[in-house]
């Protein structure tokens, strides 16, 4: 038995999310079908995490156990030849220890939330960023708010599912706002994320940028542990899973 780890990028626009579900049409379904076509064996993959409908990924990671003897260097090209055009294996497949688990072995993940502030939205980016043409967002206030998220906190205020996790405590290693032209990118790196956590952070930051939530109130909002007190859940298509890191260094 072998344990194979691979990295996949996908445009989530046409899918109901990454994880398999009764309604089908997920990224996991497409990958498992490609593996079955290649190996003639039904195989279940394990993803590093769930992404919702219309959420994208540049560096989602999955692993699966197989008895196939296909050479490790052939897996990527072979699966890409069988996958839809909006799902691509990226990088070289790796054979990892049998106890490796894409989700539980992950040390940190990085997400990006993208916002377009131009008056006119680029039609070719409409599926990948939130359009927010007005009012002008206060970037300085948004950065002050982001700084308060760094560290270990209880993120109950920033999740819409209070029953799916044993603990709502997570550690954010870095959170920053990058600006280029009319595009704002919110990057958040942490040891794990709750359901809708990054989208709620993005929605809250937009409210901060609009002056509707004080920039220095994030700490008190975290302590309140009350979803109602923070901003809305931002639209899914502005969110992209950028990277999943398995190294031991999390300083």
TrEMBL record:
Keywords: Isomerase, tRNA processing. Substrate binds at residue 111. One of its GO terms (biological process) is tRNA pseudouridine synthesis. It catalyses: uridine(38/39/40) in tRNA = pseudouridine(38/39/40) in tRNA. It holds the Pfam family PseudoU_synth_1. InterPro entries: PsdUridine_synth_cat_dom_sf, PsdUridine_synth_TruA, PsdUridine_synth_TruA_a/b_dom, PsdUridine_synth_TruA_C, TruA/RsuA/RluB/E/F_N. Signal peptide: none annotated. Residues 8-104, 145-247 form the Pseudouridine synthase I TruA alpha/beta domain. It comes from the Bacteria. The active site is at 52 (nucleophile). Its EC number is 5.4.99.12. Coiled coil: none annotated. One of its GO terms (molecular function) is tRNA pseudouridine(38-40) synthase activity. Belongs to the tRNA pseudouridine synthase TruA family. Homodimer. Formation of pseudouridine at positions 38, 39 and 40 in the anticodon stem and loop of transfer RNAs. This is tRNA pseudouridine synthase A. It comes from Paenibacillus herberti. The lineage of its organism: Bacteria, Bacillati, Bacillota, Bacilli, Bacillales.
């Amino acid at each position: 038995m072998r344990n194979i780890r691979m990295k996949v990028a996908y445009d989530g626009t046409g899918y109901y999310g990454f994880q398999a579900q009764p309604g089908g049409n997920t990224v996991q379904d497409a990958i498992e079908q490609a593996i079955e076509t290649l190996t003639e064996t039904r195989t279940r993959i394990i993803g590093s995490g769930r992404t919702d409908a219309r959420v994208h990924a540049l560096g989602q990671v999955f692993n699966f156990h197989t008895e196939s003897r296909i050479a490790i260097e052939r897996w990527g090209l072979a699966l890409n030849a069988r996958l839809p055009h909006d799902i691509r294996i990226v990088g070289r497949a790796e054979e990892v220890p049998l106890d490796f688990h894409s989700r539980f072995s992950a040390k940190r993940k990085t997400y990006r939330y993208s916002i377009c502030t131009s008056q006119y939205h680029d039609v070719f980016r409409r599926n990948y960023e939130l359009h927010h043409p007005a009012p002008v967002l206060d970037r300085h206030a948004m950065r002050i708010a982001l700084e308060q998220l760094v560290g270990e906190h209880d993120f109950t205020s920033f999740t819409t599912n209070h029953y799916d996790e044993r603990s709502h405590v997570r550690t954010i290693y870095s959170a920053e706002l990058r600006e280029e032209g009319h595009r704002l990118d919110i990057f958040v790196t942490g040891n794990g994320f709750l359901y809708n956590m990054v989208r709620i952070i993005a929605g809250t930051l937009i409210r901060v940028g609009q002056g509707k939530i004080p920039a220095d109130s994030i700490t008190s909002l975290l302590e309140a542990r009350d979803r109602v007190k923070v901003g809305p859940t931002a639209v899914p298509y502005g969110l992209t899973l950028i990277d999943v890191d398995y190294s031991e260094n999390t300083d």
